[in-house]
Amino acid sequence: MKLSLQASATPRINLFFVAIFLKIIASALSGIGFVLTSPWYYVSGTVVWLIFFFGIFVFAFPQADGWLSGFQHWLRPAARTIIVVFVIIGLVMLLVGLTVGLGQLASYDRGSDFSRLMDSLNRVFGYNDATALCHQAAENLLQGKNPYVEANVVSAMLRFQGATDKLTPLREGRFADSFPYPSAEELERLWQEAAQDPGHIPVEVESKFNYPAGSFLLPAPFIWLGVRDMRIIYLILLLPALCCVAAKVPRGYRTVFVFALIASLELWNSLAAGETGFLYFPFLLLAWVLYPRHRITSAICMAIAVATKQIAWFLLPFYLILILRTDGFRRLLLAAGTIGGIFVAANIWFFARDPVLWLNSIFAPVLGRLFPLGVGIITIVTGGLVDIRSPLVFSILEYVIFAGGIVWYWFSCRRYPNSALVLGILPLFFAWRSLWSYFFYVDIIMLAGVLVNEYGKAGGDDTRQETSYFQVHQVLTR
User: Fold this and answer.
1) Which residues, at least 6 apart from 387, have a Cβ–Cβ distance to it below 8 Å?
2) 152 vs 184, residue with greater confidence
3) pLDDT at 131 over 90
4) Of 95, 113, 114, whose CA–CA distance to 105 is shortest?
5) CB–CB of 194/188 below 8 Å?
6) 286 and 293 in contact (C-beta within 8 Å)?
7) Mean pLDDT to the nearest integer, 358-363
8) CA separation (Å) from 274 to 4, 71, 79, 135, 437?
9) Is pLDDT above 50 for 10?
10) 251 within 8 A of 292, measured Cβ to Cβ
């Protein structure tokens, strides 16, 4: 199968596809490590994740085309091969899911590692506790109830048939001494007991609604109109954003963008799994891509992202630094006022009704006694290599790396604006909780930013000459 990425596939763009490949490998290794409780898979996945971050960080540098020109002889065929392989894998997964079913594969050779992996993968494609709580919160809002008061993870998971391994256990009650994570059998016993009396929420499971109000305000109108699956709502929000960005990508690079979307298998898998990140991803994508030419629209989109999920908060300081360093203090005040105003407007009623509940709910991921989990360096704990039972050391690492990234970006944002997307999420890789979904979206956002705002329209629509973000900004604002 011959695949052409056109002359627009620069060494830098080919590196992007290699990075996507590394991310898929890292996700697979980390997932196997979690299911099989294998330290080797855990740590090897973490190492590959770090290589992915390095590759995507290099991609943020406009000079990377020059640095990588000597490697183009293998980068180009590697990128083509990756696209073909991922398209085939995606089609096979779709075909198996629609015909045989992963559940049928899981029944083969019960008890084997293969069966356990297929069973775990099969249970991925359904509501987790966050998705169930978001759907429940939107329905409670439509019924005139306060979603933060009425949150009940047990009734939500029963209502939407969530899997028991999609609950978020707490280091409380019977799980106080279960470390580094409760066993599947312990979680199943807890769930069977809880399901008998949904009105009584066990102390061992997180049931607070942990997100800002945008996470239920956004889906509520669609649920009111009769949409009964959050994943359909995600698609309704996502597709117009992708089409908007694709329309802004220069013609010579649109094929690259489409292939990148197709090759991002974890993006579509997480969509099928109902990951709540799709509530903020479309708006964060638009905020980043639209900034140079549509500043108010960009700020509104960033505000919606910030008012929806806390992950966007990590990128907000970098976004504001970019505005200050390229547009000045007045533009910063306008953007900050827009973002702050929309965030307050979305959340003020719920905060005013019960400030303590709202704060405890929103900051529960930080304040709650959560188990260590994720793909970052926490795997040395979850893999059983070291016995660290306090999140303090990981929190310190997270804050130090976050502060260092902000300082570096302050001095470098004009030359390397898209590096913010790596610097903003990298601290989470060193956190007590570094879930897979935290790192699934920023590479596509970065690619869109590079194609539109760097490889984009400084002179002609079919421009192939790379220009820096700051040069484009100067041309457009003369």
Assistant:
1) 179, 381
2) 152
3) yes
4) 114
5) no
6) no
7) 94
8) 33, 38, 29, 11, 11
9) yes
10) no
Q: Element (H or E) spanning 123, and its range?
A: helix 113-124
Nearest to 60 by CA among 430, 458, 462, 405: 405
In this structure, the number of other CB atoms found within 10 A of the CB of residue 87 comes to 16
pTM of the model: 0.88
> What Å distances lie between residue 257 and 14, 88, 281, 435, 448, CA to CA?
12, 18, 16, 26, 7
- What is residue 336's three-state secondary structure? helix
pLDDT tens, residue by residue, 425-452: 999 999 999 988 898 889 999 999 999 9
* Closest of 215, 417, 401 to residue 314, by C-alpha: 401
Among 50-59, 114-123, 330-339, 349-358, the range scoring the smallest mean pLDDT is 114-123
Overall residue count recorded for the chain in this entry: 478
* Vertex 166: Cα angle to 48 and 92 (nearest 5): 60
Please give the structure tokens belonging to residue 434: 């570094």
pLDDT digits 0-9 by tens, 15-42: 999 999 999 999 889 888 887 888 899 9
Question: How many other CB atoms sit within 10 Å of the CB of residue 50?
Answer: 16
Which secondary-structure segment (H or E) carries 241? Answer: helix 230-248
Could you give the CA distance from residue 294 to residue 296 in angstroms, rounded to a whole number?
A: 6
Tokens of 149: 């008061």
What's the whole-number mean pLDDT along residues 301-330? 96
Does residue 468 sit in helix, strand or coil? Answer: coil
